[in-house]
Amino acid sequence: MAKASMRERYRLLTRDLDWSPSYVSSEKLYPYTRFEGIKVHDWDAWEDPFRLTVDAYSKYQAEKDKRLYAVFDSFTQGQGHLGLADARYLNALRLFLQGVAPLEYQAHRHFSYLARHLDGPGPRFAALCQSIDELRHFQTETHAISVYNKYYDGFHSPGKMHDRVWYLSVPKSFFDDGLTAGPFEFLTAISFSFEYLLTNLLFVPFMSGASFNGDLATMSFGFSAQSDESRHMTLGLEAIKFLLEQDEGNVPIIQDWIDKWFWRAYRLLALVACMQDYFLPKKVMSWKEAFELYFEQQMLDGLFPDLEYFGIKPPRHLDQAIAEKEYLSHQVHWTLYQFSHAAAFTTTVPPKEELDWMSAQYPTTFDQHYRPLYEKAARMQDSGNRFFSRGLPQLCQVCQIPMLFSEPGDPTRVAFRVSEYRGERFNTCSDGCQWIFEREPAKYVQAWLPVHQIYQGNCGGATIPDVLSWYGYELGRDNGEYAGSVDQQNWAKWHTEGGV
C-alpha cells in the first residue's frame, strides 16, 4: 500500500476515530449545544486549526519543554534573579502569578469539558489540544516564577489568594462568567474575544518587558507559549467563522456575545495596562502604544473589515476603550498605590525618570492629571506620611473593579452608573458594564463582591488584619510600600560592594 500523506494520516488519526452511537440519540449524547439558540447544520465543515495528531502534538510539546526547563535550570543555578533591573519588577510577576496563571488552569478545565461535549470530532479534538496547552501554560508559568519564592516575599499561596483576595476577584469573576455560559458563548468569550482580540496585549509586550528587565525565565515561558497562543487565536477565528457560516440566525447572537466579551476582557486587561506602564522599571512600550499596535491596527484595520462580510460589526463601546488608552493605566495604578497595604505586592511612587517617560508617552493627560498626584504623594512620603486609603471602595457589579474609571473624555469625573433590578440598586463603572448587567441581571446580582463580603463578616473577621490574615498575607512583608520593605533591603544588600 502507498504511504499515506500527512493530510490523510491526520484524518485517519483524528476525525476517522469518531463514530455514531447506536444506543443513544445524538441529542442525549451532546445535550449542551442546543440551548443557546445557535444552529449547526454540518459539523464536518469545521476546518481544523491544529492539524496535529496526539502523537505529533506530544512530541512537539515535549521538545519545547525540554528546552524550556533547561533555561529554567540555568537561570536558577546562575542566580539569575540578581540580574533583574530592579526588585520592583517582581510586583508584576506577583500579579501575574496570582491573577493570570490560575486562569490558564480554568481554561484547561473548560476546554476539556468542550472536548467531551461538542458534537463534531473536529472541534472536540481542537478543544482537547487547547486543554492540554492551557494546563502546560499553568505549569510552566508556575515553575518559571517559583524560583523567586526562594528569595522574595509575596509569591506563596497564589491559588488561595486567587480565590479570596479582593483585586483578584476581577480575573476570577471573568472566568466564572465564562464557565457558567454555554459552550458556544464560552468559545466566543475565550477563544475569540480574549485569545484572538486581546491576548497579544498580555503576552507580547509584557514578555518583551520581562526580557528587557533581565527576567530570562519569564521571557522563555512566554515565548514558548507563543506558538500555542497562535493556535489558540486560530481556533477562536475558526470557531467564529464556522458558526457564522452555519446559519444566518447565528449572526445576531454572536454579535451580542462579541459586544459583551470584548468589554469584559478589556476591563480585565486594565490590570495589564498598569503592569505595563508602572511595574516594569525598564520600559519597552507603553500601554497606549501596545493598544494602538495590537488592537487598533490589527483588529480594526484587518479583522473586522473581513468579518463585515458575515454581518459582524466592531464591538459595542469600542470608542470608549480607545479614548481610555490615554489614562487607563494611570487610574488603575493610582488606586493600587492607595490600597497596596491590602494587596500581596508593594507599590511606590515612580522615580522622576519614569514620571518623565510617562509625560512623553501621554503628553495630553499625564502632566495635567496624574503627575501632580504622584509628586504630592512623594512629598507626603518624604515627610513620613505615606498615604494609604483606609476605606473600602465601591465595586462594579460586573467587572468587580473599584469605581476608579472616569467619564469618557473627562478624566476629572468618576463614572458611575446605576441600575435597578427587583427593587434593588446595583452600581456599575461604565456604559459597557451597565449594558452587560442589564442584559443578564439575574446572573450578575449573584456576584461575590469582596467589599460586600467583608462587611458581612465572611472574610475572616471585622478588622483589616483579620481580613489580610484570611487572605494568607504575611503582614509587613507581602504588602505595602516598597521603599524600606524587606525585599528592597535585601536587594540593596545583595547589590552593594562585597554583597552576594
Please, could you describe this protein's structure?
- The strands form 3 sheets. The protein has a two-stranded parallel ribbon.
- Strand 4 (417-421) and strand 5 (424-428) form a beta hairpin.
- The chain has one domain (60-494): Ribonucleotide Reductase, subunit A, CATH 1.10.620.
- Helix 3 (54-77) packs parallel to helix 6 (121-146) and helix 5 (101-117) runs parallel beside helix 8.
- It is 59% helix and 4% strand.
- With 500 residues, the protein is mainly alpha-helical.
> What is the gyration radius calculated from CA atoms?
24 Å
Strand order of the largest sheet: 1-6
Task: Tell me the CATH topology.
Answer: Ribonucleotide Reductase, subunit A
- CATH C-level class: Mainly Alpha
Number of domains: 1
Task: Give the CA-based shape.
Answer: globular
Provide the succession of SSEs.
Answer: HHHHHHHHHHHHHHHHEHHEEEEHHHHEH
Mean pLDDT: 92
The number of helical runs is 23
The class by helix and strand makeup works out as mainly alpha
CATH homologous superfamily name?
A: Ribonucleotide Reductase, subunit A
Spans with pLDDT under 50 lasting ≥5 residues? none
Query: Helical percent range?
Result: 55-70%
Distance between the termini: 66 Å
DSSP E strands, number: 6
| Biggest beta sheet summary | 2 strands, parallel
The percentage of residues in β strands lies in: under 5%
What's the structural blueprint in terms of helices and strands?
Elements: H1 6-13, H2 26-29, H3 54-77, H4 90-99, H5 101-117, H6 121-146, H7 158-164, H8 169-179, H9 183-196, H10 199-212, H11 216-246, H12 250-268, H13 270-278, H14 287-307, H15 318-324, H16 328-339, E1 346-347, H17 352-361, H18 366-382, E2 406-407, E3 410-414, E4 417-421, E5 424-428, H19 431-439, H20 441-444, H21 450-455, H22 464-471, E6 480-481, H23 486-494
Parallel strand pairs: 1-6
Antiparallel strand pairs: 2-3, 4-5
Helix pairs in contact: 3-6, 3-11, 4-7, 5-6, 5-8, 6-11, 9-11, 9-12, 10-11, 13-16
